[in-house]
Amino acid sequence: MISVKDIVGHLSSPTKEDEALVTKAYDVAARAHADHTRYSGEPYMTHVTAVALRLAEMGMGARTVAAALLHDTIEDTDITEEDIRRDFGEEILFLVEGVTKLSSVRYYGSDRHNESLRKLFVATSQDIRVLIIKLVDRLHNMTTLMHVPEKKRLRIARETLEIYVPVAHRLGMGRIRKELEDLAFPYVYPEEHKRVLELLKNKIGKYEERLERERKALQKKLAEAGIRNFNTSYRVKGLYSLYQKLKRKSWDIDQVYDLLAMRVVLGNMEDCYKVLGVIHDMWRPLPQRVKDYIAFPKPNGYQSIHTTVATSSGNILEIQIRTEKMNQEAEYGIASHIIYKNSQSGQSQNRSENWFAQLIPSLFRPFSRRGSGKTEAVAKDAPAKMKIPLWISQIGEMYSAPDSGAEFVEDMRNDFFTHRIFVFTPIGDVVDLPVGATSIDFAYAIHSEVGNQISGAKVNNKLVTLDTELKNGDIVEIVTKKNAKPTRKWLESAKTTMARRHIRAELEK
Questions:
Q1: Which of 159, 205, 273, 354 is the least crowded, having the fewest Cβ atoms under 10 Å away?
Q2: Is the separation of the CB atoms in 431 and 423 below 8 Å?
Q3: What CATH number does the domain located at 4-183 have?
Q4: Cα separation of 457 and 81, whole Å?
Q5: 3-state helix/strand/coil string of 359-409
């Protein structure tokens, strides 16, 4: 079993207070779960320690790791909320409550599942760490899914693909997304999984030797070019990602050019472009397969240079070139810069704000916890500048009512986990909307009052009808009038649940 020493050893520059906190949480959890086992027969502590270790490896702070160690104590043991509040404080209690499986909710089947997810996102809208812990908790549970009763297995795997995978993707957590996808895939689509495996086996066979030869050849060339500070790795495309691409390519695996990939991670951005030149001098690039996501990041903040080449040995390789910082952000996204560390005086220091918030600040709201009619800090030592993605804040607001669980998952699929577009206000702020959204959705995403008073819209400086679908990168300007009011026709044009709710509320008045 993972020891407390292992977990503390992976914390980033822990203080003595950090070590004491994690050790205390470990000891409390070990005593509380002493007689508990998992479906696999292993001690229950194997789960909570695995979650805590993974979070520490990701760079999460001591309070987050402590909450992970305690995340099942309220539900499964004699430990109470008051015990955790007394021994660990309000902040850790809030995180534990947010992550717990909510067994006190008396629902059955999908209704219980929907209600649990609704409460998860309401809690997440107040502290993003709740969702990060929950994602890692789900990831470890997926690794032991084969031991779970068959009836539960399919439901857990399906909700992983439908809810947790899109959440991880939208938070830029590429490594966790890929792991969740590939763990759920064989349970949800067993026949397709077998077919993909067979196609992959026939296409690439034993790929390790081929990739290792190409990697050594590239390392030699880079050293000859005077590039020293780099490391290289390789991988085969994830099975679920390959399945999605094969469906688009009529199951023709010869049309998939990123089956085999190599990654070069460097110390600075300038070297990324030097390496691109070395690679193209060494191997023939395929036409129209060079993508510069460093200059033009993906909507979720992903940065890297991609090029696809045909090597002298006849292999087709996608090569990804990025800095260490870009690599961390690509793998752990929003979690990569959430560092909580106490200074010697006991005051919290937020050493780096969320990377994505810095990229597009308008998508985020300040870190806060709603109290009775006011906004208050979660804890004295919580980072004051912590940010929450706007789409999570919207979920928290729209589904805060206890009776909204039934419609929650369907709305989530339609609004938040569809393909997204990013459009701009005239001053350059970014608004995140589902594909098919219109100016009406844009206006309500800005503010309900803006939406209720729409009298017209301009897209890229041209007047358009309110039902015109927006495209990625559009600049949208809303014209308002105080006496303007929503009409029933707006309901047909609105794509998002938020817009439709506000429109209905105004029409009912």
A1: 205
A2: yes
A3: 1.10.3210.10
A4: 51
A5: HCHHHEEECCEECCCCEECCCCCCCCCCEEEHHHHHHHHHCCCHHHHHHHH
411 annotated active-site:
no
Residues of the chain with pLDDT below 70 are: 101-126, 299-300, 337-420, 430
Residue-by-residue DSSP string for 455-478: EEEEETTEEE-TTPBP-TT-BEEE
Domain ranges of the chain: 4-183, 193-331, 336-392, 418-508
* 3.40.30.10, 3.40.605.10, 3.10.20.30, 3.40.50.300: CATH of 418-508: 3.10.20.30
Which residue in the list 19, 57, 76, 331 is annotated as catalytic?
A: 76
Enter the tokens of residue 360.
């597009």
Q: Is 75 a catalytic residue?
A: yes
Question: Cα 414 vs. chain centroid, distance in angstroms?
Answer: 18
Nearest to 181 by CA among 128, 244, 124: 244
171 phi and psi angles, rounded to 5 deg: -90, 5
**pTM exceeds 0.90, yes or no:** no
> Per the CATH hierarchy, to which homologous superfamily does domain 193-331 belong?
Beta Polymerase, domain 2 (3.30.460.10)
pLDDT of residue 7: 97
In the set 19, 57, 75, 353, the catalytic residue is 75
Report d(CA 38, CA 232) in Å as an integer: 38
Sequence-distant contacts of 302-306: CB under 8 A, at least 24 apart: 302/172, 302/174, 302/329, 302/330, 303/329, 303/330, 304/330, 305/272, 305/273, 305/276
Tell me what percent of the chain is helix, strand and coil, each rounded to the nearest 5: 55, 15, 30
The pair of three-digit structure tokens given for residue 128, joined into one six-digit string: 């993003």
